[in-house]
Design goal:
The complex is a heterodimer of chains A (about 280) and B (about 300).
Chain A (H helix, E strand, L loop, with lengths): L1 H35 L4 H6 L12 H42 L5 H11 L5 H13 L6 H25 L3 H9 L4 H12 L1 H16 L3 H6 L8 H12 L3 H21 L1 H13 L3
Chain B lengths: L1 H11 L3 H39 L2 E2 L8 E2 L3 H8 L1 H35 L4 H8 L6 H11 L6 H8 L16 H25 L4 H9 L4 H12 L1 H16 L3 H6 L11 H11 L3 H32 L1
Antiparallel strand pairs in B: 1-2
Helix pairs in contact in B: 2-14, 4-8, 4-11, 9-10, 11-14, 13-14
Classes of the chains: A mainly alpha (about 280), B mainly alpha (about 300).
């Protein structure tokens, strides 16, 4: 019995050590990023990178804001909100048909959706770049919306279809007897009842697009239309040796998502994990 | 539009039930599916086909038309030493991801489950890397890895391990491992939460019964819980493999595949050839190869899991 307790004790200590170790591994880079942003450059070079700043020095943040951070920020907000809105509408419509209506070709079309999940961005990159250039959308915010919507469709439709299937059939039948046509059924019954799934899908796609890099990198060069991940990438070249300014920029760019996480932790986690948890 | 609908109606409607369906649902089916498949066709399906076509041509993207060159790009790809460094690098990342992220994520998931409410604070912190963009993470770690004023070397020096301090991203030797560590840092929380959802979904009776029968906690995890989680593990492995094969952002930001192609991946090499050297044809060849590899892996996983599913 004693041996068992000893074993248990050792086990628990090991577990706690692992937990704390990983906490440090995860936390330290964030700590470093946060506090370095408040240091003067000389202080950064002369003090230990782990020490807290002597005083709250805000010039790095001012410097970042001066370099058009706000414009990149607005570009990101614009692209993300338009593409997520369009994506939600389109996906909900398709999911409604897949979940509620029997029609010929239903299985192959849905299989196509599932196949869409594994298409790597890179195999579409060159043709999408050529297409966007040809129709004159290169270097515009509009050029990003197409691919941003399209790559969100497969998962969003699958999640929403799965959800809408759970809505009781009786509701639909009752409404139908009352003379409700399929269009009104969608807007007045199915859509309002799918709110929670729509929120999850919206969060998943919004965070993904907020952080998206490849398409934004290939489809834009003009700083006036570039989004936040590219601002981070460009500023890095511009400030290069001014590490505190770069850390201030990283902090600012991550802030919106971190604030959202602080407000609606459960929702955000469910949103981010939506893709993976779907498979279960 | 109306004509197409008319043709479809004539082709398909043969009896009264179908006619009734057609009157009530045809419009909504077609109108509601059209936008989604329009976007898929323009930005996913057509580009795949087009990449395939372009892989048989030479084109700088500026000349009016691509020049057809047959299998020349494909022959070049087979002899391309850089590609044959990139592919093994991808496979190494697959290997490390499966070997480090999944087990670590699983261990942390059991830990969180065991700790219950006491561990909520841990969970909040653990998840933080998932909130940052790969670009931001890449740049953050570039400075952490900096040989002169980086966090890592400073820590190593301060605890008396200065011989270990080095230019983490500057030497071909070890750069892939340094980058992989960051990838693990970024994605372990993802697998942790995926597994946590599955672990906390296991029935409590299962554990109680196992412990009652004299099994230790570890034995319970190893012999009872893990076999129950095989489906989730398979999902995680699939996501991990496909993700590792198509990896791009973080490496592009941290090393651009360097130094001397030591951390080159298929995706970074493809972007280099297509958008830095403007070889749209050869870039497409690499892209199609990447796609074919991902497709083969996905099909293998799909069919093998089906067979396992049959046996179970």
């Amino acid at each position: 019995m004693n041996l068992k307790r000893l074993k248990h004790g050792i086990g628990m200590t090991l577990l706690f050590t692992l937990a704390t170790l990983w906490l440090l591994v995860t936390g330290l880079p964030f700590y470093y990023m946060l506090q370095t942003g408040f240091k003067e450059q000389f202080e950064f070079l002369s003090s230990s990178p782990m020490s807290l700043p002597g005083k709250l020095y805000l010039d790095n943040f001012k410097e970042v804001l001066k370099h058009d951070f706000v414009r990149y920020f607005i570009n990101s907000v614009t692209v993300v909100s338009i593409s997520v809105f369009v994506l939600l509408v389109i996906s909900a419509m398709a999911a409604y048909v897949f979940s509620r209506i029997d029609f010929p070709l239903k299985r192959p079309l849905f299989a196509l959706m599932i196949a869409g999940l594994i298409v790597p961005v890179h195999v579409t990159l060159i043709p999408v770049y050529l297409l966007i250039s040809r129709i004159g959308l290169y270097d515009t915010i509009g050029g990003l919306i197409g691919p941003y919507v399209a790559f969100g469709i497969p998962l969003s439709v699958i999640i929403l279809t799965e959800f809408m299937r759970q809505i009781p059939r009786e509701l639909q039948d009752a409404a139908r007897i009352d003379g409700c046509d399929p269009f009104r059924m969608f807007f007045t019954i199915i859509l309002p009842l799918s709110k929670s799934a729509l929120v999850t899908v919206a969060i998943y796609n919004a965070i993904g697009r907020w952080n998206e890099f490849v398409f934004a990198y290939v489809l834009t060069t003009d700083p006036r239309v570039r989004t936040l991940p590219l601002a981070v990438w460009e500023f890095q070249g511009m400030f290069s040796m001014n590490v505190p300014a770069i850390m201030a920029l990283l902090t600012l760019s991550a802030l919106p998502v971190i604030i959202a996480y602080a407000i609606g932790q459960e929702q955000i986690v469910r949103g981010i994990m939506a893709g993976a948890l779907q498979g279960r | 539009m109306a004509q197409i609908a008319e043709v479809a109606r004539l082709a398909w409607v043969q009896n009264r039930a179908q006619l009734r369906w057609w009157k009530e649902y045809a419009a909504v089916t077609i109108l509601f599916l059209l936008p989604a498949f329009f976007f898929l066709a323009v930005f996913l399906l057509w580009p795949i086909f087009r990449s395939f076509q372009l892989s048989f041509s030479k084109w700088n993207g500026i000349d009016p038309t691509p020049a057809y060159v047959g299998f020349e790009n494909w022959r070049e790809l087979i002899r391309d030493e850089v590609f044959w460094r990139a592919l093994p690098n991808n496979l190494l990342i697959v290997f490390y991801s499966l070997l480090i992220q999944l087990p670590l994520g699983m261990a942390l998931a059991f830990l969180l489950d065991k700790g219950g409410r006491k561990m909520v604070g841990f969970k909040v912190i653990y998840f933080l890397p998932m909130l940052m963009s790969s670009v931001a993470i890449g740049i953050l770690f570039k400075y952490i890895y900096d040989p002169y004023f980086g966090l890592l070397n400073t820590i190593l020096k301060s605890i008396g391990l200065s011989p270990l301090a080095r230019a983490w991203l500057g030497k071909p030797d070890g750069v892939l491992e340094a980058v992989t560590a960051v990838i693990c840092w970024q994605y372990t929380p993802f697998y942790m939460l995926l597994f946590f959802a599955a672990v906390s979904g296991l029935p409590v009776e299962l554990k109680e019964a196992a412990l009652m029968d004299g099994a230790s906690e570890l034995q319970y995890i190893w012999k009872v819980a893990l076999p129950q989680l095989i489906g989730t593990i398979r999902t995680a492995a699939t996501i991990s493999i496909i993700g590792s094969l198509t990896y791009f952002d973080l490496i592009w930001v941290m090393t651009e595949g360097g130094p001397n192609h030591a951390s080159e991946l298929m995706a970074t090499y493809m972007v280099k050839r297509a958008f830095q050297s403007f070889q749209m044809g050869y870039g497409s060849t690499i892209a199609v190869m990447l796609f074919v590899i991902v497709l083969l892996v996905a099909l293998t996983v799909f069919f093998s899991s089906q067979r396992i599913g049959d046996v179970e």
